[in-house]
Amino acid sequence: MQGSAGVRTRWTDRLKALWRGNKQFRLLLTLELAVMLPAAALIFLNFHQLKSLQREKSLEAAIHRDFQQMLAIAEKQINQKAYTKAEAIRDLFPSPDEDMVQQSQKLDWILSAHPELSHVFFFDANRGFLFRSQPSQARQPYFVEEHEALEKSFRGWFTLEGKSILERTRKKNRPLMWYGERMKRNGNYVYMTTAFLVLPHVSTDRVVLGGLCFEPDYLKQTFLPQMLDALVAYKLGEDGANPLAMMVQPVDAEMDAGSSGLTGGYWMKPLAASAGWTDGKPEVSRNFSDVFTGLTLGIKFQGTSVEAIGRNWVRRSFLALGVLSLLLCGGLVLTYRSVSKEVALAKLKSDFVSNVSHELRTPLSLIRLYAETLELGRVKGQAKVEEYYRIIRNESERLSALINNILDFSRIEAGRKEYEFRQTDIAELVSNTLDSYRDQIDEHGFTFERRIEPDIPPVQVDREAIQRSLVNLVNNALKYSDREKFIGVKLYRADRVLKLEVADHGIGIPRNEQSKIFEKFYRAGDPLVHNTKGSGLGLSLVRHIAHAHGGEVAVDSTPGKGSTFTLTLPLDPAAQPQADTTARMAG
Ligand code: ADP
């Protein structure tokens, strides 16, 4: 027990130390916990949900449920329409009190006013049965046959069942009862529906029934297609929905077509269909009850199937989830990189502060020491006194160079650095700068070589900035040379540019660090660099100055052999900064 407690303490201690010590770790952990973890969990959950949706075909089931509902509504509306039509005609029926001639005339009149009917009839248990058929079709032999067959069967049926039909119909909340049937016309099957009517103003003790048969061609060609088209068009109006198609066919259409192979495959085709119905089975169907018994209503999407929609939806969702996951990973990598960069910069900044403090302290204490010694008058001999003064001057120059670098840097960072470009004899400027530096170069035991090409034309530069660049480059050559002490400065023209080269035979810079040394605060990893004072600002200033002049600075270096820094300035007046102007450039 104790052992495990000990291990735990050590483990938690280590974690605590890591937490306190490593800013990058802290930031990343916070990021993971606060953003990435919930996002990843969400993606994972979604993925699982999608998988189960795919497995259980839930989307398909939902669409099917929707279809069922639409079919129920469609049936209701179709029925409603049939009822309204039949009820309107019912009002035209003769009264049982009229004589039979009058009644016959009324029935004929109904037929002529309603070509959508093929037959109408009137049954009175006390007086007999009137059965009239559409005169326009009377010449068709099949129609005459139909007339006779129907008249016979209805007469027989009503004589036996008239009373009970009447009673059953009276119990309904509408005065109608329907009877749908399939029959043969000319060798083909057709569908007809008949309405039995309880007539108005007839006392309940009388057995009187009216009736009408809807013409099969009217149902097939007009009534049903119009209804289906209206229903589909209504659904089409709903946004974003896939277009629907509907059809009506006999309940046993498929069975018929398959087994008994009815003539001409009549039933293989739907009885009626909306626009957009193509071959194939409906996705969902619903058998009619009441008005169109024996028929079934079918629905599907135009040009696609529920299964395909389900498959596509799942595929699209998986794709979206994949893209989301990729984005998340990309975000993670980007954040990791930017956090690392920020943390590295923060470290560079803190190194910078300690480097600069060191660099400020050394010259200051030297100046104080020599000044105090001089003040006390203890220095013997003029030569010694002069040496002390020289040391004081050199140290204060170093101090102002450093402070100038820092000031320039802060102006660049704030976007307030201004350059003053003037026509300048750059050869003279370089010579003078090197002259004033000569002492220091010699003092450190360097071999010095200078080659300034004659006839260099004047160029637009900021004198102080160019001077500062040269001083920084020469200073670096002094600082980063150990065994072979050599400094070479060249100024020459090359193909419409001016090149100022500072070369040394010093420690050199590894290839992978050569581009980084121009970044602010960056100092190479070499131990000599770390033992040498520096702020990591010099080269970033040189690069800024070069850019402000429309030029560039580059390095060519081999570790252990030396480095050559080249400042390139344009000679072409068009590429140079404007004369007598100041330029402001952000860092
Ligand atoms: P600092 O010299 O103050 O560190 P710089 O910006 O001048 O800052 O230089 C950045 C880094 O580039 C230096 O720390 C050093 O590692 C490298 N460097 C610059 N000049 C030379 C050189 N002449 N030889 C070798 N390394 C150099």
Short characterization:
This protein is α+β, with helices and mostly antiparallel strands. It has helices at residues 2-21, 23-56, 58-90, 100-113, 141-171, 216-236, 253-259, 306-375, 382-414, 426-443, 463-479, 527-531, 538-548; strands at 117-124, 128-133, 176-185, 188-197, 208-214, 244-250, 272-273, 284-287, 295-301, 418-420, 422-424, 447-452, 459-461, 486-494, 497-504, 552-558, 562-570, 582-584.
| CATH homologous superfamily designation of one domain | Histidine kinase-like ATPase, C-terminal domain
Which CATH class of one domain? Alpha Beta
| Molecular shape | rod-shaped
Bound molecules: adenosine-5'-diphosphate
> What is the overall pLDDT average?
87
Question: What CATH architecture of one domain do you see?
Answer: 2-Layer Sandwich
Unreliable sequence segments? 257-267
Q: Main sheet: which strands, in order across? A: 2-1-5-4-3
> What is the number of helices?
13
Beta strands, count = 18
Portion in beta strands: 15-25%
Rg value: 52 Å
- The CATH topology of one domain corresponds to Heat Shock Protein 90
Tell me what you see in this structure.
By secondary structure, the protein is of the alpha+beta class. A hairpin with a 2-residue loop joins strand 14 (486-494) and strand 15 (497-504). The longest helix is centred in the middle third of the chain and has 70 residues, at 306-375. The protein is built from 13 helices and 18 strands. Adenosine-5'-diphosphate is lined by residues 472, 476-477, 480, 504, 506-509, 517, 522-524, 529, 534-540, 563.
